[in-house]
Amino acid sequence: MKAKLVVFPIRGRSWCFSRSIDQATSQSASVNVPSTVTDLWKKISSDSKPINANAELLVDFISNKMNNAWMGLENAPEGTLKNKIHGLGLRLLARVKPSEIFLKSISKEVTNVQVTYPSSLNARLVRRRLRHTAMRGAIIHRKYLYGSVSLLPLTSALTVLPLPNVPFFWVLFRTYSHWRALQGSEKLVQLLSHELQAQNSKTSNGNESVNQHDDSEHGINNSQVSICVLQPSKELEKLTRHGAENGGLSECAISKICKTFHLNKIEVLKYRDSL
Question: For 193-213, what is each residue's pLDDT tens digit?
Fold first, then answer.
């Protein structure tokens, strides 16, 4: 599965990393998740899969149930306890860093990535910044994953209270979120490192001409299957250049970029507003 990534400076030296929205992929992934405990047990017991695959299936099942419960809170009447819990959840979610959301979007099914960036940027710099983000994310989310797991037993003790155990579900969500971000970080590092090793191998063997080497620097690969394609965009360059104001991009320019490259505007704005 191909993941289309968009990279561009959003304020000063800070860059935005986002993945294009693919509705078909998200819908097909949700269909494979069992809807009931009975279906989950049948799928785990019938398929001769390794323990890691069954564990991921269980996590996806729990995540799907949490998403359904969240949608129930969202549709709760105004002024009710469920509506207030939903408002609290929105305030907590607003604190989640956009880089975490980006890394979570790189699932284990991704086999290659297409990186679109302004044509004025250097391809090596784009790859280096993208790899740095993935490696830094792996370190951070591994640390926070262990911390969230250690808090689960403490917050689960609050179930004896008559009120909804919001701390437990929040810590459970953060555990799942950090785990997904860690997986996405490791997957992205793997893809970028594999592509870099392949290019270094071609260069050292002298099998590529000077022109082909220049093309590879701009993300052009003559092989049928390329793991990481760096694609400069004149259109993205034009939008970022004309939309710059006070050292950053205006909201109007961000809206145009999101509409053109199918990005989530709320997530992109987080990069600008979190600085």
Answer: 876 665 656 555 655 444 444
